[in-house]
Design brief:
The chain is α+β, with helices and mostly antiparallel strands. The protein contains five helices and eight strands; from the N terminus they run ββααββαβαβαββ. The radius of gyration is 15 Å and the shape is globular.
Length: about 180
């Protein structure tokens, strides 16, 4: 367990998969209710999160009372969006915040935690993507120091829907690892 600015981080284990599904679905409903066409409730099941745990890392963030306040996935490659790449980056996916319980700034703390995890492997860049129709999220990531490095206009969802994503990255030269 890692404590960072009052947030406790721990790697998710298989028994956490249903907690992650519920967190994802609540975040997806919040997006839908706020006019953001991005995530869909029911799109990610427990098997999705178990697979991410096997292929990369999934981190839970909690408060001092043990309540989950957020989570994120950390991948070591993302060929679907970025193509084949040398091992210079970690890829942050599904940054989720429990809006009813998370203190202000929790999303940024989770993003910084991911960046330190990536830096700890010797990789020099954190990468992520965001759907091109979400300017608010794009501004959030840019405010966290990410810069746009490309766009993938024809990413295909598991439902066959085609959508665009903006590719962002941040150099991690001066970070200390977790």
């Amino acid at each position: 367990m890692i404590i960072d600015d009052g947030i406790l981080f721990r790697q998710a284990v298989e028994k956490d998969a249903h907690t992650l599904v519920a967190l994802y679905d609540r975040a997806a409903r919040w997006m839908r209710d706020n006019g953001i066409d991005q995530w869909k409730p029911g799109d990610k099941d427990a098997d999705h999160f178990r697979a991410r745990m096997r292929d990369g890392e999934v981190w839970l963030a909690g408060d001092p009372d043990g309540r989950v306040i957020g989570a994120y996935e950390l991948w070591w490659s993302d060929e679907e969006a970025w193509g084949v790449q040398p091992p210079v980056a970690g890829y942050v996916h599904r940054l989720m915040v429990e809006r009813e319980a998370a203190p202000a700034g929790s999303g940024r703390r989770m993003l910084e935690h991911a960046e330190r995890r990536i830096a700890g492997t010797g990789r020099e860049r954190a990468r992520l993507d965001c759907v091109s129709t979400n300017p608010r999220l794009l501004a959030y990531y840019q405010g966290a120091g990410y810069r746009v490095v490309g766009e993938l206009p024809n990413k295909e969802g598991k439902d066959g829907r085609i959508y665009g994503v903006i590719l962002l990255e941040k150099r991690l030269d001066r970070l200390t690892a977790v």
